[in-house]
Structures are given as structure tokens and as C-alpha cells.
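Appendix B, Record 12. Input sequence as logged:
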Amino acid sequence: MRLFNKISTYIFISSVLGLSACNKDFLDTTSYSQVQESNFWKNGADATAGVNAVYDALQGEDSFGLYNMTDIISPIAAPCDNPGGMAEFCIPGTNATSGFAAMRWRGLYRGVYRANLCLEKIPGINMDEVSKKRLLAEAKFLRAFNYFYLINFFGDVPLITKTLGLEEATTPTVERTPVADVRAQIYKDLDEAYADLPVSYTKSDLGRATKYAARTLKGKVQLYEGNFAAAAATFKEVIDSKNYKLYDHYFNLFDYKYENNSEVIFDIQFNNVVGTGEGNRFEKYLGNRESSSNGWTNIQPTVYLVDNYEMKDGLPAAQSPLFNAAKPYDNRDPRMDFTIIRPGASYRNILFKDIRYDFKTNNIRTGYLVRKAVTDENVGLAYDTPTNLILMRYGDVLLMYAEAQNEVVGADQTVYDAVNAVRQRPSVAMPPILQGKTQAEMRAIIRHERMIEMALEGHYYFDIKRWRIAETAQWAVYRPKDDNFLDRVAAQPNRVFLNQYYLLPIPQGERDKNPKLVQNPGYN
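Logged structural output:
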């Protein structure tokens, strides 16, 4: 059962109530109904529905619904068409009218507003106190979650911890809050949430935030801040809790038939009943759902990603005796074929070379297609896919722990253990990293492992930004011309990463409404 869609009527009503109150234009002010607030927030069911509406906000394509597609703004994936406004980013001339920036701002603040509304209304409801504490903890977790991504996209952002009254809404004066202050609120919310969240849920509530989801997010915030000692300690709490373990089969980890498995810490739940209209659009954007005709897909792996998959002996292709130039995809890290569709492979029983495409529109521009989180089933799933979107998982925790611990003490045994556990899950079985690595060598290994293990899950864009290597990364997109594909030189604008792109522009529409929102450097 999916908690979001189980009570979709309540979700709709509670989200409407949030939007009908007087609030700031740069939050979400669209009203979808005449439902009156006086008819709501009366009992425990209303409180649950209100919090469900905060989760529901995560599903939107302007918040996390397309989260895994942010890898388009990194060297490992390239856009085809312009999903969510992402293709315009990293192309010279990106400015404050960026649709990508506007969508992120709008969607994330929608989640913040709904969380704030719950935190104001639920305390006054006469209901079971244990449930009340848990629902308030969930709202705090979700507010922190949205603010974490706001500061990583935009830097300083307005810190709003209450719903705004009429005077505040009609006189826009809210200024950007320093990142350090927003981060302090995130930590406060997460610590308070941790105290009142359960370790796990019964089946009917799967997908809600748990105690160790709060800890995982806290560790991630600490890691991104550069507080490596604190991050390592927090991730160790998650590891030592033994509540999670690596799922044996890497490919099935992302298959809806195996969802809510042992590795998932927090994900966005979608309805698993096809035809309800309550699924996601993964198959449209990721899944080549028209592979029998135009090969429609909006994100495609790049040659840079493919070339970075090691051979099965753990060596780069250029150094391995296993590499055969006539069969360049043989004997590679199994995660390559679990993640991408490449020449010589098949998809839905169609050989790659036979997947027809129109080179002028939505086609196989880079020479590769996405396989991770894509199902081979039912063409009709394009706009209604049941696959959950995993946002935090145990494999990520192990690699983040290894990164933080390596920065604190160097490559101790726990760092090797964490990295090798990821490399040696049964379905991957790559050779272990051998002892004797310097801190710098291990840093490079961990960064490479993150690129491969987390590929096309939406993390690499944030990784290259926090490592401050984005402007020097290799942005190669295309495969060389071969017998199956045309020359791709003119198919995609050249991408660059300017220093200003470390932060998105504050959307110009928001600045027009509120002159106090000072623009990030480098944007007009």
C-alpha cells in the first residue's frame, strides 16, 4: 500500500488548505478549491492527511519527481529535449529566467509551506499523543529535507518557519538567510525528528520518515558542510544500527517488484496499481517507452560515464588485459549493464542496433540509453510507472561514511570495509580495493566509486559541486561514429560549467515580486 495515494482525497484537501491561507508569493499561492480551513484540522485523520500532503509535494516534477534527472547537469548524462528546463543549464547564456531554477524554487518551497502548516495546526488537535509526536517529527524531517536541497541549489535562501499572515504576504520583505543559519535550523529539525520517529513502520505506513532517515540526512548535511568528523560519526550510527543492509542484486534494487527492500532508507512512494494515474513518469523520461518508433527518452548516459566502468579485474580498460577493442563492453563492471543500454545489448527483447530513432528529435544522441530504474514491461506505463524514487539508500551511506572517515583519518580499515562492501555485493562482485592507499588515492577511488555506484540517481551533480571540480570535469557526450549511428557532432550544444553555476540563479519572477531577494553572482 502507498501512503500517498491511500487517502488521496485528504491529500488534496490538506494541500488546498495550505495554499488557501495567506502566504508569500514566492511560496505556493495557487488555490485549487474553496475548501475552508474551518472544516479541517479537527482530528487525527486530518493531521495524518496534512502530513501526507507534505510527502505528496515530493512527487511533483518541480521538486523531486525528476530528481534522478539532475545528473543531466553533470558529465555522466546528457539531455535529449528539455525535461524540467534542465537542458538549458550548463549552456552558455543561462540566466535568471531559467525554468529549471524556477521549478526547483517553487516545488521545494511548496514542501516547506505544507510542513510549516502542519507544525502550526497539529499541536492544537485533540488526538493520540504518540501519533501526534510522530506526525510532527515527520513534518520536521520533511521541512529539513526541502531546505537541504534549497541551500544546495541556491545558497542563501529565505528561512521561513511559519505560515505568513496577510500583512507579510502583501508586503514582500523576506530576505535571504545565510546558509549557516538555514543549516542550523535543519540540524534542529532533524535532531527533534530523530527523537520522535520510529525505527520502522508496518506495511501500511512504509515510506514514511524513520529515525535513521533523519540521521542519514543529518550526516549528509554535515558531509556537504565539510564537517567530516561529525558526518563520519553520524553515518556510523546508521551503520551500527544494523537496520539496513546492501540488497544482493543491484539491478533489482531499483525494480518496483522489489521495492521497500533492505537497502532503502527513504524514497518517494508511488502507487503500484497501473492505470490509476498515481504513478510517476520515469518511463517517459528515462525509459525509452517509444523504443519501437522514435526512441523517446529525455536523459542519456554519456561516453564519459561508460568509459569509467572498470573491467572485471578492477583495472581501467586502458590498463586491463581483459579489454578487447573489438568488443569494448565485454568483461566490464556488471553495474554498467545494470545501469545503461549499450550497443550489443537488448531492451524489451529488441536488439540495441534495431531500436529505431529519429535523429532530429528524441533519439539516441549519445549512443546509450538508461536501464536503471526502467522496466521492460508494458508500454502503457509511460505516464504511470509504479517505481519508487529512492533518495537515500544504504550503499550511499557506506560511501559517504568512507569519504568522511578518509578525510578525517585517512584510509583506515573501516574505509576499506565500506568501499569494498559496495563493490562486492553478490551481483557486482568487483575485486576489493587493496590495502596501502594514501588518503589522496583513496579519495579518488571513493569519488570514482560514487560515480559508478550512484550513476543516474541524481547525486553526481551535487557531488561535483561540493567537491568543487565541476568546471574542470570532462563533459564529453558522444560516442565515435560507427556502423549503427550517425555522426553526433551537431546534435547537442556544447556544455560548459562556469563558476557561477555552482549556485542556481534566484528566479527572476520571484525577484520581481520581492526586491529583497538579491541575485546570485554571475546572473543577469
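The two ends are 47 Å apart (CA to CA).
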